[in-house]
Design brief:
The protein is α+β, with helices and mostly antiparallel strands. The chain has 3 domains: 141 residues, no CATH class; 66 residues; 101 residues, no CATH class. The protein is built from 6 helices and 23 strands. The longest helix is centred in the middle third of the chain and has 15 residues.
């Protein structure tokens, strides 16, 4: 009796009605327009390498070393410079939406020459510029390389990528930035990560209900225009809007990755009444190469030689039973669970989902990656 009760409870959970979508905060499903990171990039030199830097064939590295030395009144020709202990690198960092002078940034350093490893090196002072060509930060410091590469007599031992390094807090902000959120008409634009008209309408309704009068209006499926009241501070309005909770509306989707055989679907993606018949035919072709050697013939000549003989065998095997799955107003999760019980391979499940979509029984968008 207890076992029967457990089975009934399991069936109730398996075929329970659709659950309501989760209510989430606005800050988790979108952001304010203008609030974004700013990429920085620069060119520099890494020195102190143990004969693992750029080879003499890299003229840019030798020229860079000569240019650095010239700033300290050391005149040397690029052809007279040895570059095996140095490497030309590109330096990149990300400037947050709000940054003040003196803040530190994490830096990534990558080799652009033929250096074998950056382990043990140190980055010389390198300016980091934005897309407008303006210097916003300066980077310098010892590299942390999470890998190695050793080579001797053609044998190579390598872990990760030793030509990429990082400097935690290695850049100092010289020019601060402040994200511009307010438009000329003293309004803000809240953009959804996943554009949807229903979600945009719900967000506007939640904002208007929070402030007691109409401040927000959906502009399209992605953006909601919010008017800043004259007697309200910007930070206070942003904090109240970000903590509001709404129930986002999602479009039914089934995502299929053919390279890895992965199927991702929402648990409530519905399929219409459909019957699936799936068989399995396996063809195996094996070739056995053998050598025929003349044993009793002692003569030599152009007609007497060893001959290679290929023997091929073809085996066709078919599963005795054909998998039959009948789905009636179920979900994709139920269908996949039924196919799994039949020990259906993941790639066969992908083919079945394609066929169900072609038959018009899958009420969702099928995305093939």
């Amino acid at each position: 009796m207890k076992h029967l009760l457990n089975c009934l409870l399991a069936l109730t959970v398996l075929y329970s009605p659709l659950t309501q979508a989760e209510v989430v905060r606005l800050k988790d499903i979108g952001k304010f327009a203008g609030w974004r990171d700013n990429p920085l990039v620069g060119y520099g030199l890494v020195t102190g390498l143990a004969n693992t830097g750029d080879s003499p064939n890299n003229k840019a590295t030798r020229q860079s070393i000569a240019n650095v030395l010239s700033q300290f009144d050391v005149a040397v020709q690029p052809d007279d410079v040895l570059s095996r202990n140095a490497a030309a690198v590109m330096v990149s960092a990300t400037l947050p939406p709000t940054a003040h002078e003196g803040d530190t940034l994490d830096v990534t350093v990558t080799s652009i020459g033929d250096a074998r490893s950056l382990a043990g090196g140190s980055l010389l002072l390198a300016p980091l510029k934005g897309p407008n060509g303006k210097v916003y930060a300066l980077a310098q410091g010892a590299l942390s390389v999470g890998g190695y590469k050793y080579e001797l007599n053609g044998s190579i031992a390598q872990k990760n990528h030793p030509t990429v390094g990082a400097i935690p807090g290695g850049a100092t902000v010289e020019v601060g930035v402040q994200a511009k959120l307010l438009a000329a008409d003293n309004s803000l634009l809240f953009t959804l990560s996943d554009a949807d008209f229903t979600t945009a309408a719900r967000v506007a309704a939640a904002i208007n209900a929070e402030f007691g009068h109409t401040l927000a209006e959906p502009r399209d499926a992605e953006g909601i225009r919010i008017q800043l009241p004259s007697n309200t501070r910007l930070v206070d309005l942003l904090a109240r809007v970000e903590k509001l909770r709404v129930e986002p509306d999602h479009r039914a989707r089934v995502v299929v990755d053919e390279r890895t055989g992965t199927v991702v679907s929402g648990g409530d993606v519905r399929i219409a009444k459909v019957v699936i018949s799936h068989g399995d035919l396996k063809i195996s072709i094996v070739t056995d190469n053998s050598v025929s050697q003349p044993i009793l013939v002692r003569q030599t000549g152009p007609g007497v030689r060893t001959e290679t003989v290929a023997n091929s065998s073809v085996t066709v095997s078919e599963r005795d039973e054909t998998g039959l799955v009948s789905a009636s107003t179920n979900t994709v999760a139920d269908l996949i669970q039924a196919l799994t019980r039949l020990k259906t391979h993941t790639r066969d499940i992908i083919s079945i989902l394609r066929a169900v979509k072609a038959a018009g029984a899958l009420h969702a968008e099928l995305l093939i990656q």
